[in-house]
Amino acid sequence: MLKYSEKIKETAKRLLKEKTVDVFIGYRKGSVPMMNKPVLIADPDKVGQLYWDSFCGLNLCNYLTKRTGRIGIVANGCNSRNIVTHIIENQIKRDQLYIVGLPCEGMIDHRAVMRAVNDKEILDIQENGAQFVVKGPGLEETFEKEKFLQGNCATCTHRNPVIHDEMLGDPVKEQTGVAVYKDVEKIEEMDPEKKQGFFTRLISRCIRCYSCRNACPLCYCPTCFVDESKPQWVGKSIDPTDTMTFHFLRAYHCAGRCTDCGACERVCPMSISMRQFTKKLNKDSQALFSWEAGLTLDQRPPLDVYRPDDYNDFIR
């Protein structure tokens, strides 16, 4: 993964110098280990900030919405699929973008790393192929990357960008035979009372900080439903009913659009696995409509279209 850092810098510098783009969107190393963050660069002399490793887990498409001018952007599988969705939903135009594609081997779950070292202070992490070394005061341990992937990366079947103007590496082999919805199927087998209990426990720690909404590349409404006051759709407290309503409504807003990029879970300060909401809807979209979000510019999401011959068997 680290080998792409220099290629990204070279490409960004060329694009900015040649005036192919006005700004380049990528990642830079965070001030603390495992916390890389997005960066927008307009000056060719500042491309040295750009960086790429297995902790670039936030989705960059948040920084595309309604942006003007020509934009260069780093895109792995997740980012590229959300770029497709942004184009389809008229948040950005295709001819504004210069997409720099990157094959992805998955992002490391920083919380899993912290658990593995018993929450000891980490000062540095060095990647070496399929392994990474964690260093800190009295700490130096080597781990296998495959065992520490984010949940969405472990089951990802679209690691290569689906759309790009330039690729910085050879495509990686896509995962096959992955039980993408194994966790969802377990919940589907529960009776209604157990399902209710599962989701109640799932969101019981939620403090309504809205980090999941803010990190989600699909949440670009000018005014979110939770912020409306006339009418007020949902209460603003951490009352369990209000909290559940927020999570369910946000999930349904993402139905047929979510690429399971994992940004929502990555930023949650309470470590809530809210992908359990959206993954169920992804599974239904695939089963009912043979649809996966962000794979083509030629078709709109299933809940965004009307056809006279749509079946109506579900209406009672």
Structure description:
This protein is of the alpha/beta class and 316 residues long. The protein has two domains: 1-111 and 150-176, no CATH class; 179-316, no CATH class. The protein is 30% helix and 13% strand. The protein is built from ten helices and eight strands. The protein has helices at 4-17, 77-88, 110-116, 151-154, 182-188, 192-202, 211-215, 240-253, 263-267, 275-289; strands at residues 23-28, 37-41, 71-75, 97-101, 124-128, 131-136, 139-144, 166-167. Strand 3, helix 2 (77-88) and strand 4 form a beta-alpha-beta unit. 30% of the residues are buried.
What proportion strand? Answer: 5-15%
Q: What multimeric state do the chains show?
A: single chain
How many helices? The count is 10
User: What strand order characterises the main sheet?
Assistant: 2-1-3-4-8
Strand-pairing-aware structural class: alpha/beta
Query: What is the percent of helical residues?
Result: 25-40%
What's the overall average pLDDT, rounded?
93
Q: How many strand units? A: 8
Would you list the SSEs in sequence order as H and E?
A: HEEEHEHEEEHEHHHHHH
Span between termini: 52 Å
Write down the domain tally.
Answer: 2
Poorly predicted runs are: none
Biggest pleated sheet: 5 strands, mixed
The radius of gyration over CA amounts to 20 Å
Shape: globular
